[in-house]
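REQUEST FORM: STRUCTURE PREDICTION
Request ID: SP-0412
Submitted by: Lab K.M.
Chain count: 1
Length (residues): 148
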Amino acid sequence: MASCSFSVYVLFILFMFDICATQDGKITVTGQRFYRLEVAVNGNGEKWKSSESRELFYSFDKTEFSADLVMHKCRVHFIPPNKEIPRAKDQPGFIVRRVYDSKYKELTELVDTGYDDCKQHEINLLVEKTIAKIPQLAVTEDASQNRQ
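STATUS: Completed
RESULT:
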C-alpha cells in the first residue's frame, strides 16, 4: 500500500514490481495500480458497485512514485467469479474479481479471455498463486451453484 498526496491524502494499493535509485539518490517504486470502489468510475461518471466490501479492481496501469510513500504490505487475493469468496476471518485481505480499464472506464471479469496474451498470462499466474495459497478454492464448486 502506498500513499500519494496531492491536495488531499489518497491511499493507493499497488502491486510493486520494481524498486530503483534515481541519479540523485532517491528511491522510487514502480507498480501496477489497483482501484478501490470509491475511485473507479464508469463511462457515466458513476461509481462501480460491488457486494463485497473488500473488492479491488485490478488494472494494467503502471505508476512510479517515491519509496517514502510506501506504507505497508497487504494481501490481495485473485478469485475467479465461479469461486466462493473466503470469509475475511479465514483469509484477510482484499479480493480481486474484475479488471478496470481506467482509459475506457470499463470493468471486465478477471477470467475474460479478451486480453492480449501477455496480460492474460499475468492474470492466470495471479489466480493460480491465489488458488495455491487458499487450497479450498481449488475444490469449491461453482459459486452460483452454492447459492441455490
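NOTES: Helices lie at 117-133, 135-139, 143-146.
Reviewed by: T.R.
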